[in-house]
Amino acid sequence: MRIRLTNTLSREKETFVPINEQRVTMYTCGPTVYAPAHIGNARPAVVSDVLVRLLQHVYGRAAVVYATNITDIDDKIISAAVEGGRSISEVSATFANLYRRNLAALGVAAPNHVPHATAHIDDMIDMMKVLEARGHAYPTPSGLLFHVPSDPDYGKLSGRDRDEMIAGARVDVAADKRDPADFSLWKAAKPGEPADAVWDSPWGPGRPGWHIECSAMAKAVLGETIDIHLGGIDLVFPHHENEIAQSECANGAPFANYWLHNGFLSMDAEKMSKSLGNVRTIDELLKHHRGETLRLALLSAHYRQPLDWTDGLIAQSKATLDRLYNALRRMRDADSPGEEIAPPAAFLEAICDDLNTPQALAELSALATEANKAKPADWPRLKAELVSAGALLGLLQADPDDWARGDKDDAARIDALVAERIAARKGKDFARADAIRADLAAEGVEIMDGPDGSTWRRV
Ligand code: AMP
Ligand code: ZN
């Protein structure tokens, strides 16, 4: 099976060839943990999770090593800590834990490594020492800077010309740059900064810049050269360009062979971002929708395309899952096929083609249509195909009856009707009690009266 991936480095769809089929490595830039993550932040995590599942399918579960970091030291975290009168680690631990729980609810499997930046300061310092020794970095009063003209390959990922690079580097406000494109590796501590935001280094007290964090953590947990590096499209420049410069100049080896970038999630056609204030946090969305519905919504567009997040998209995703689970429910009593059933070829073809999840979902729907028409003799195969294809997308692994029952809003409505029926019976309003039972039966909900009260199930 050939996986094809669009590589930002070459701007082409390439056949994926790992360095070592027994150890396929992948790194995805994780969040800066100073506030609840929004659903846009979940996109790279969910896309990575699907790619990891595919790599595991092709190379074997044990062969894939996936790492995603937590940036737990940063200006925004320091501000949040100072404003809230809390320590840096309190703030970062709160939001790192929330992020982990949110992603688990979206069906994202735990990565093999989740390095936290503050646990790898020594690795960062080691890498910066090498960069300085090799003439790629120089100390200044504001910290250690990377000297961009020292790297002839700089710019190969983003393809930016020098003027654009200088414009992009201006956000890095180091006063004493030798070249306007230079960027910070180590940031000298500023007066008044909390003590837990400061580490010792050969360049004085301070803290690492964001870019060196990923370079050092990726090396520490995966090695000098990794197969796949993923992140949002906003990270191509400067973050990923700088990661490449640091890692390749320090290690003298290629950093990542395949660079994948997901498109942005927008709301009402505007980029979803904390600074614009138009965010939907994962946590808030999970109060109203099931994680699997949100996951399918994220996978409904190709990962490289923009995706507009709307209520209509969520409703449509829920309806798609209802239909898929209903097909599984009809076949619930089918025997296991007695052998391992692979996902259908057309489904695999779609997912191997640069993770074409919209096409893969269309194949799942076609399978459900086929199942709805099929004779019971074909159910064991069709059911197994739906479940194994679903597993590659991280979908359809729940019990179909639980799915039908577990619709949070709907379950609350039915609970309320069942309670109303009990009250009506107590009040001897049998007409109302019977009407509720009949209405619920008409929508496929059966009330079961027992000694401990009434429960319900979908039939
Ligand atoms: P941040 O915490 O802002 O560094 O973002 C963590 C990850 O989420 C990065 O890979 C970003 O590229 C990605 N990201 C942030 N906002 C969005 C968005 N609106 N749509 C898609 N990805 C995003
Ligand atoms: Zn990164």
Explained architecture:
This protein is α/β, with parallel strands linked by helices and about 450 residues long. It has helices at about 40-60, 75-85, 90-105, 120-135, 160-170, 210-220, 235-250, 280-290, 290-300, 310-330, 345-350, 355-375, 380-395, 400-405, 410-425, 430-440, and strands at about 5, 10-15, 25-30, 65-70, 135-140, 145, 185-190, 205-210, 225-230, 255-260, 265, 270, 305-310, 445-450, 455-459. Strands 4-3-9-10 form a four-stranded parallel sheet, with helices on both faces. A four-stranded antiparallel sheet has the order 5-6-7-8. β1 (about 5) and β2 (about 10-15) form a beta hairpin. α2 packs across α3, α4 crosses α7 (about 235-250) and α11 packs antiparallel against α12 (about 355-375). The longest helix is centred in the N-terminal third of the chain and has 21 residues, at about 40-60. Zinc ion binds near residues 29, 214 and 239.
How would you summarize what this structure contains?
The protein contains 16 helices and 15 strands. By secondary structure, it is of the alpha/beta class. The protein is globular, with a radius of gyration of 26 Å.
Structural key phrases:
binds zinc ion; 15 strands; binds adenosine monophosphate; 4-stranded antiparallel β-sheet; alpha/beta; 4-stranded parallel β-sheet; 459 residues; single chain
What is the residue-mean pLDDT, rounded to a whole number?
Answer: 93
Total number of helices: 16
Strand share of the residues? 5-15%
Question: Level of helix content?
Answer: 40-55%
What composes the largest sheet? Answer: 4 strands, parallel
Identify every distinct bound molecule in the structure, by name, code or SMILES.
Answer: adenosine monophosphate, zinc ion
Backbone shape? globular
Number of strands: 15
| Multimer state | single chain
* Major beta sheet, strand line-up: 4-3-9-10
Radius of gyration: 26 Å
Low-confidence stretches: none
Structural class: alpha/beta
Distance between the termini: 41 Å
